[in-house]
Amino acid sequence: MRQLRTTDLKRLFRAYRRAHPPQRRITLLLQNVEYAINVGSVFRIADGCAAEEVILSGITPAPPHPSITKVSRGKERNVPWRHVDTPDEIIGELRQEGYRICALEIVQEAVPYDEYTYPDRICLIAGHEEHGIPPRTLALCDDAIFIPMFGKGMSLNVHVSLAVICYHIRALEKRERAMA
Q1: Which of 24, 34, 94, 97 sits at 20 to 30 Å (Cα–Cα) from 119?
Q2: In terms of Cα–Cα distance, which of 76, 79, 31 is closest to 53?
Q3: Which domains does the chain show, CATH number per domain?
Q4: What is the model's pLDDT at position 121?
Q5: What is the pLDDT of residues 25-78, one digit of tens each?
Q6: Total-model pTM
Q7: In what order do the strands lie in the sheet with 121-126?
Q8: What gap in Å lies between CA 6 and CA 3, rounded to an integer?
Q9: How many other β-carbons are positioned within 10 Å of the β-carbon of residue 100?
Q10: Is there a contact between 144 and 165 (Cβ–Cβ < 8 Å)?
Q11: 51: nearest Cα among 41, 63, 64, 36
C-alpha cells in the first residue's frame, strides 16, 4: 500500500462524492461551546461531512480566531456559518425550513443515536462541554439522541460526538441507496 497524495487523493474523494452524494441536509448548532479548539474541530467535521451550516450561539467563539483557524485547518472559510445570541429564533427559522431539531444530550427522552430515525433535514445541537444544552433550548428541541458509553466516562468530547453522529448519518445514506 502507498499513501495517496494531492492529485490522487483529490481524485479518490471526487469519485467517492459522485458515487455517494449526501442525501440529508445537516446543520450544526453549537450553544455555549466554550473552547475554540472544539469549534475549530466542528468546522473541520462540518466540511468533511458536507454540513449545510454551522450556527454558533451564546459564548461560543467565532471566526476570526487563531485557534479556530489552526484546528479547522481553514475550513471555517469553506463552511457557511453565523453567530446568534440565542438559538431561540434560529430554531424557529430552521423548523419552518423543514428541519427537525435534535439535541445531542443525555436526557430521559433521548434515544441511542443508532436507533434514531434521521429525517431529510436535521439540526444537531451540541452544548457546553460541562453543562450541556440549557433547559430553555432543550424545550425547543423535537428529539434528543445520545451516544452509549461502555467505559466509566459519561460522554465524549463535543466535536467527537458530532463526528460520530454526522458520519453515522452519511453511512446510513449509503446503506439506504444500496437497499433501494
Answers
A1: 34
A2: 79
A3: 22-179 (3.40.1280.10)
A4: 98
A5: 999 999 999 999 999 999 999 999 999 999 999 999 999 999 999 999 999 999
A6: 0.96
A7: 81-84, 53-57, 25-31, 121-126, 100-104, 143-146, 111-112
A8: 10
A9: 18
A10: no
A11: 41
